[in-house]
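hey can u check if this looks right to u? its 134 residues, i copy pasted from the old doc so theres a chance i mangled smth
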Amino acid sequence: MSDSVPKPSAESCARLSAEAAQLEKAEDVVVLDLRGLAGFTDFFVIATAASERRRATIVDAVERRVRERVGRKPIHLEGYPAAGWLLADYVDFVVHVFSPESRELYQLEKLWGDAARWYPEPTGADAAAASRTP
């Protein structure tokens, strides 16, 4: 008999990553479901942050939260905050944090236009403002 905890799904990890990015004030956070569309990963988590420091902070927060909650670490980190993008590769999901200009340049949402999408719920002041909107 095994006492091991079941491995969390790629979907739950991608959603956790999106929520962590949003908590760190990432903008336009979206999860693309690439299952059946791509052979290299199941999900993309895409977020935007205007400053180099914010991009690095978001990736660090995602990495910390995923490690603490589900015990996973990325197999690869890539990019440079000054270059306008950072990437954390967990194999079955990949977290992308772009500058607004880099996000427009790479257009991952357009490239993977057939992918189903999930948007995390607004947090903090954004949630309060959304609840007041008629």
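The first strand starts at residue 27 and ends at 33.
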